[in-house]
Structures are given as structure tokens and as C-alpha cells.
Amino acid sequence: MSRKTVREALNAALDEEMRRDEHVIVMGCDVGLKGNPFGVTLGLAKKYGLDRVIDTPISEPAFTGMGVGAAATGMRPVVEIMFCDWVTLASDQIINMAAKMRYMFGGKVEMPLVIRVPMGAGGGQAAQHSQSLEAWFNHIPGLKIVAPYYPADCKGLLKAAIRDDNPVLFFENKRCYSVKDEVPDDEDWITPIGKARVVREGSQVTLVTYSSMVKVCLDAAQELADEGISCEVIDLRTLLPLDYETVIASLEKTGRIAVVHEAATRGGMGSDIVAELCERAFDLLDAPPLRVGALNVPLPYNESMEAAVLPDKENVKEAVYRLLSND
Amino acid sequence: MNQETEKKIREVFPAYTPMTELPEGLELETAREMYRKMALIREFDLSAKDLWRAGKIRGLCHAYYFAEAIAVGACSALREGDYTTSTHRGHGHALARGADPGRMMAELFGKAEGCNKGKGGSMHIADVDSGMLGATGIVGSGIAPATGAALSAKLQKNGRVSLCFFGDGGSNQGLFYESMNMAAAWKLPVIFLCECNDWAIGTDIRRVTGDPVIAHRALGFGLPGIRIDGFNVFAVYAAVAEAARRARAGEGPTLIEAKYMRMLGHHVGDDQFYRTKEELERISVLYEADPLLRLREFLLNAGLPPQTLDEIDREEKARVAEAVRYASEDCHEPSPEELYTDIFSDIIVE
After folding, report:
1. What is the pTM of this model?
2. Which residues on B lie below 8 Å from A57 (Cβ)?
3. What gap in Å lies between CA A193 and CA B342, rounded to an integer?
4. Fewest CB atoms less than 10 Å from the CB: which of A24, B47, B235, B330?
5. pLDDT tens track for B223-251
6. What tens digit of pLDDT does each residue of B96-154 get?
């Protein structure tokens, strides 16, 4: 174990997998010489050369599509979309090619493609550099989606994604790059895709969350504990396939649940998770399940306006009070 | 072909070039087998057209009619292991790479034995084992994956080239420019082969492009762009052979515009009401430039007996008839479990 930031953990994952398998390549805008805007790919070009850490022109549709073609022919590309907001540009190749090729070609194609998507608000970068668009892709059969928070999971899931023979969208939150924690050094250690983790045990309310909101939920749970309310916090880590077993096991204990994410509430992951739970586990619910997400408005530039849009600890606590109000 | 006819063809189709001799490196025997492939494609798609009209084939089905010289000329210049990507009009590309007509017909019938297990159909026809990475129904969307396959070949140093088929419709997608730019910047072993038939569904290229010569677009990206007669299988072969040589030598991509003409509708159910009677009358002289007939005429002039070619015609007709019989009589409906397979390599998500 060593203490690493998310940034360092992601870098270590790329480094280890590039060393392990020469078919792993990294491509995107500024990933090479500059080491990407956030320092995630820093040093890789020096180590593995600019042939494998490829600085692309600003052509998201084509370099994502090239990742598709390279993955179909034996490479394991890790494509970076510098800001999540621009995954829109690449979405045709992700949705209609990467996610569909295996199926529409009758199982003949492997698609070991990872698309890293730095997302998230909080830095005053306004409406085109702040969004969290993961839920859009939850709608698409053929994709796996991960959105880890802890440095260890960031490393373990990125390694798992690179070794996976299917397209994986890897959402990392820009605001969490400096989160620091213990990370296993073992190069063969991975975090399995599709497994959630209970990060705080509790008995009265389940908070299901991922990415940047893990910390927010833990802080809320701590304060609620001081008030005598016991919350269980589940870090989903993987959004597709989603670990409903872990979620429902928690619901069996608590009977009350809120889904918390940074993305806009309407049409977010929370909407889908709540709907799924109503179908699968309605009898376990002692209160209507809730969603806590961003307001359904574009991300504004102004600091207090932006803060008002994003969900915070207080919003989570209010949701918990509401869930318990029919007791 | 007499001079009078040739003159008329040139008026409508300036890209016309005569088939005077075998291109360098091509044996007469290979040319005869190219004729066989073209005859197979012609018969396969005329048959598919009838089957679609008879309600035996679902969905959208685009015939490779009159384009046979492009797929066969181009794929004959490739080596085993080279990659091709296709368009929505992909039957010819798959057959030219050696796909089995029986399994392809089974695919059009939606059967479990189909080359895509009945999950793709005409628009996604694929024969990945032969390097044909699949047809795509989104116009132009195969261009970037083809370029990625070339990147892959370059990094793996396996000497392969990637042949990217697309149409004049696809040439107006941004993806084309982005891909061509990167391919040129990094000298990737890719051949951009535009099958220019002047029509994007119901829109004439002249109405929507400033310069309808697609080959000119290479200039802005610093790669060679040539326009060739897409009814002339030897012209296609020679152009692709040279482009493949360049690609394998590390000299980078080439843009080839193979001109042909869409004589039928966009798909086999399209009656082309949007094309004027005058326009159809004007292009009707191109039936004299039928790529199959032109190769036949060349082979006869080169000394092949007509019986040999008649025999090939009969054999390929019989192959297609057998493919139809196989698809309709021997093949099976996919099992219900197949709905959920082939989505992922490892897990079933329902």
C-alpha cells in the first residue's frame, strides 16, 4: 500500500497496464507531451513514446472512432475526452459503433476500448465544461460504465477496464483528482467491474451514491449520526452493470433509500435506480425513494449560483429527514 | 464497344477510361476470377432485390448493382489479413473479400446460421474473419474505425493496410475530414476509397457540394487524390494496388474517388420518383458501360472462349440459387437466448 491521490492512482494504472501489455495505447488531446490538463497522463509519453501516448488533433468523433477501429483489430486503446461535455461529439462512435459492433456482427468483434471522461462541476467552468453526462450512456446496451471515487478504486477499476474486452466508459470527477488515500501497489490487483461497496454501515436510511458525492454523503451521514440517525452509504463504483444485490440487501435493513449524484436530477441515474427498485423491491420500501441531484438548469458561472445548482451535504440531510418523516 | 457509344458514355461519364490491357501484375486467370466475383455479386444483389420485394427479406437492403468493379478491383489488390470497412451498401464488399454467399443470404433471412447470427442483416453484413470489419448503416461512420485499424496495423508493424469504402454521401461527414487529417499527419496505411455514385439517397451531389469532385479534397490534407473510372475493374485494381504499395511503404494514405452511377434506387424498394425522366434517359447510355459486360468484352478479346464465361455465369447463378435455398430451407430461427448473447464478451445483462 502507498498513499496516492486519484490523479496518481489513475496514472499508476495506465503506467502498469502499458508496461504489462504493449497493445495498450492512450490517445486524446494533450495526453502526450502535456500529460493532459489534469496531470493524469503525465510522464507516460516519456516512458512509452509518443507512438503509444498519442496527442491527437481536436477531433473527438474521429479519434474516438479510431479507438473503435484499433480495438477491433487487436489494440487496447484508452481514449480520453478532455471534458465530459464533449463526449457529445464522440457519442455516435460510442453509441452506434463501440456498443453495437459485437452484437450486430454476431459476436465476431472484440471491443477492448476504454473511454476516460473527466466530468464534474465546481470550478466556475460554466455550462460547457462542467456536466456529468453518465446517465445518457446507461441507456445504451453494450456499454459498461464506471464512476469510482476512492483512489484505490480509481486504480483498480481503470486496470479492470483496460483488461476488459468490452467498451467501458470511465467517468472520473475533476474535483476529486486530489483526494488522497491508501492504494494497493500490487500490479495484478484490480477492482472488479460491477461490484458496489458499502463504505459506511447504518440501519435507518440507505444513501446510494458514486463519484464526487461519496464524500458528501459520508459527511452528511457523520453529522446525522451525531443527531442519532444511522445511514448506510453505498459507493456504487460501477453504474452499468449496477450491483442491485448490494443495494437491495441494504434496503432490506433500512427500508428507506435516496440516490445521490452530482448530475442533473431529471433523467439521471437516480431516476433509473429508483424506478428499478420500485419494480424489484417495492415491498421493502417504507417511504417513497428519493433522488438528490443537481438542479435541472445549465451550470452557471457565478460561484454562488453554481453552488446552488449542485447537491450538497444539506440536500442529502434534508432527503434523509424526509425519508424518516413518515416514521 | 464502338467509338460512337464510347463518345456518348464520356459525355455523361467523363471519368470513363477504356480497358485496353491487363494492369501490371495481374494475370488473365485472375481477371477471369474477378469476373466470377463480379458475376456473383451481380446475381446475389439482383436476387436480394427480388427477395426483398417478395417480402422474404426485412428492413433496408441496398444493392451493390453496377458497383461490382469497385469492390472486386479493390479487394483483389489486397492481401490476406488486410482490413476493409464498409458502408450500408456492403454486400459487394463482403463477397469481394470472400464471404460465403450462403451464410450471407442466411443473414438476410435473419437466420441463426447467418454470418451475423441474424442480428445484423443487410446493413451490418460482416465477415470479420476475412478482415471485412462490417457494414455500418450510419453514412460515413466507418471512416474513423478504418483509420483506427490502420493505426493498429502501424503500431503492430504487421504490414497490413486498411481499405475504407465510403460514398459521396459519407464524404460530406466531418468524420471524413478529421480522419483524413490524422491519417495524413501520421502516414497511416489507409486507403480512402470513395464510391461516388452522385446520389445521397434522394439528393444529387451537385445540389449540395461546392466541388463535386471528391478527389480534390485530398489536396487540403496533403495526400494524393485521384479520380478513376469505377466501371473499369482494372482501373480500380491498379489504383488500389498503388495505394496499398504506398501505404505498406510507409508513404501514407491515398484518396481514390471511383466514379460510378447509381442506376437503381437508394435501396431496393426505392422507385426513385425524385429523379426526372430526362435524367434517367440521360444516364441510360451507361448501361453500355456495365462493368460486368466491359470485363466480359475484355476477356473475350483476350482470347477466353465465350463458353467459359457462360459457364461462370451459370455457376454463380447456381451458387446464389443454392444460397437462397440454404437460407430458406436449411437454416433456423435464432433461439430466444440469442437476444442477450454477444452484447458483452463476459456477462449477460438483461
Report:
1. 0.97
2. 178, 181-182, 185
3. 18
4. B330
5. 999 999 999 999 999 999 999 999 999 99
6. 999 999 999 999 999 999 999 999 999 999 998 889 998 999 999 999 999 999 999 99
**Amino acid B1: pLDDT:** 82
CATH of B34-339, one of 3.90.1300.10, 3.40.630.30, 3.30.750.24, 3.40.50.970: 3.40.50.970
Q: Do B138 and A109 touch (CB under 8 A)?
A: no
A residues 139..158 contacting B (CB < 8 A): 141-142, 144
From CA A92, how far away is CA B100, in angstroms rounded?
A: 30
Q: Domains in chain A, start-ordered, CATH in brackets? A: 2-183 (3.40.50.970), 197-324 (3.40.50.920)
Share of chain B above pLDDT 90, in %: 96
Scanning A72-111 for CB atoms below 8 A from B yields 72-75, 77, 92-93, 96-97, 101-110
- Per residue in B17-36, pLDDT (tens digit) is 999 999 999 999 999 999 99
CA angle B135, B137, B138 (to 5 degrees): 120
Length of chain A: 327
Nearest to A70 among B85, B138, B148 (CB): B148
Buried b (16+ CB within 10 A) or exposed e, A290-324: bbbbbeeeebbeeeeebeebbbebebbbebbeebe
- The two most distant CA atoms of chain B are separated, in Å, by 65
A49 touches chain B (CB under 8 A): no
Confidence of residue B349 (pLDDT cuts 50, 70, 90): confident
pLDDT of residue A185: 97
Task: Note whether A164 contacts B: Cβ–Cβ < 8 A.
Answer: yes
Q: Is the Cβ of A279 closer than 8 Å to some Cβ of chain B? A: no
Domain boundaries, chain B: 34-339
Inter-chain touch B178–A101, beta carbons under 8 Å: no
- The answer to whether A92 contacts B151, with C-beta atoms less than 8 Å apart, is no
Axis crossing angle, helix B233-248 with helix B28-53, rounded to the nearest 10 = 110
Q: Render pLDDT for A82-137 as a digit per residue (tens, 0 to 9).
A: 999 999 999 999 999 999 999 999 999 999 999 999 999 999 999 999 999 999 99
Residue pair A17/A163 in contact by the 8 Å Cβ criterion: yes
Mean pLDDT, chain A, integer: 97
Catalytic residue IDs of A: 60, 129
Q: Please say if the pLDDT value at position A327 is more than 90.
A: no
**Residues of A with Cβ-Cβ distance to B175 under 8 angstroms:** 61-62, 65
